[in-house]
Write a structure and sequence with these properties.
Elements lengths: L9 H22 L5 H21 L5 H26 L9 H18 L8 H26 L5 H28 L7 H29 L9 H17 L17 H8 L12
Length: about 280
C-alpha cells in the first residue's frame, strides 16, 4: 500500500497491532497452567512470531511481508477461537475469563480488516461510532482487569478503577444510542463531536491513572498480581483509540522495555490517523 498523504500509514498500523498481538500471545502463555504444556508452547510461539514480524516491519513493508503478516494473524485468530471453544466446554485449563479471550479475538479481527483495507463504514461519522463501540467496551474490561488483579487492600486505587468502569460503560451506552440515531441522520454532528471530547478526556485520565499505577507496580509499591506489561498494553490501546477518534495528539508513554516504543510512532502519525483519503472526510 503506498504511503499516501491523508492516510494512516499501514506500516504504523502494523507496528501497533503486531505489538498488541505479541502481548496477547504472552498473556495466553502466562494463563495456561503447567498441565497445558502444548498450548503454552503454542501461545509462546505466536508471541515470538509477532515480535519478529514487528522487527521486520520496522525496516519496510513489502507485499510479501504483508501477506505473511495476514496469514499469521489469521492463524492466531483461529487458534484463539479453538482455545475459547475448549474453555467454554471446560476441556482446557486457562486462567483468564472467556470474555477477556473474546476481546483479544475481536482485536485480531480488527487488524485483519485493516490489513484487507476493509473499512466498516466509509462515512467518517459512522467510522467514529465503530471505534467508540469497540474500544469503550474494551476499556470497561480493562478497568475490570485492574479490579481483578489488585489486592483488596488497595482500596483507593480500586475505587478509582470502579469509577472508570462506570464512566466507560456510560460512554459506551451513549455511543450505542447515538449510533442508532446517527445512521438515519449522519449530518447531525454536534452530539458526536461532544461524545468524542468526553471519550478523549476520560481516556486521557485513564491513561494518566494507569501510567502512575504502572510505576507503582514496577516499584513494588502496590499489592496484587497486576503485571506492568498489561498496564503498558492498555495504555497503548488508549492512545491508539484517542487518535482514531481525532482527539489530541497522543503523548508518548515511558517505555520500560515492554513494547511501548510503538507509541512514539503513533504519536507522530496521529494527524494522519485515516484509512481513507482526507478529502473524503
Amino acid at each position: 500500500m503506498p504511503e499516501t498523504e491523508g492516510y494512516f500509514e499501514l506500516k504504523e498500523e502494523c507496528l501497533f497491532w503486531l505489538a498488541i498481538l505479541r502481548d496477547h500471545g504472552q498473556f495466553m502463555y502466562l494463563a495456561f497452567p503447567p498441565s497445558e504444556k502444548a498450548d503454552a508452547k503454542e501461545a509462546q510461539y505466536y508471541a515470538g512470531v509477532f515480535a519478529d514480524l514487528r522487527q521486520r516491519v520496522a525496516g519496510g513493508l513489502p507485499e510479501k511481508l504483508l501477506s505473511e503478516i495476514r496469514n499469521r494473524v489469521e492463524d492466531f485468530r483461529k487458534y484463539q477461537q479453538d482455545v475459547l471453544h475448549r474453555l467454554l466446554t471446560c476441556s482446557v485449563g486457562f486462567n483468564l475469563p472467556p470474555l477477556v479471550l473474546e476481546e483479544t479475538i475481536d482485536e485480531a479481527r480488527e487488524f485483519l480488516l485493516i490489513l484487507d483495507h476493509v473499512i466498516p463504514e466509509k462515512n467518517p461519522v459512522l467510522q467514529d461510532m465503530h471505534e467508540h463501540l469497540m474500544w469503550l467496551w474494551n476499556f470497561t474490561a480493562h478497568a475490570d482487569a485492574i479490579l481483578m488483579l489488585l489486592d483488596p487492600v488497595e482500596a483507593i486505587i480500586l475505587t478509582r478503577a470502579r469509577e472508570f468502569k462506570k464512566l466507560f460503560m456510560a460512554l459506551f451506552y451513549k455511543a450505542y444510542s447515538y449510533g442508532k440515531m446517527i445512521k438515519s441522520r449522519p449530518e447531525c454532528l454536534a452530539n458526536l463531536i461532544y461524545l468524542n471530547r468526553e471519550a478523549t478526556t476520560t481516556s486521557q485520565e485513564f491513561i494518566e491513572y494507569m501510567g502512575k499505577l504502572k510505576c507503582d507496580v514496577e516499584e513494588c509499591r502496590v499489592l496484587g498480581i497486576l503485571p506492568a506489561l498489561l498496564l503498558d498494553h492498555m495504555i497503548r490501546e488508549a492512545h491508539y483509540y484517542i487518535g482514531k477518534i481525532r482527539g489530541e495528539c497522543p503523548k508518548d508513554s515511558a517505555s520500560s522495555g515492554t513494547g511501548a516504543d510503538s507509541v512514539a510512532a503513533l504519536g507522530a502519525a496521529t494527524k494522519k490517523l485515516r484509512l481513507w483519503p482526507a478529502k473524503n472526510r
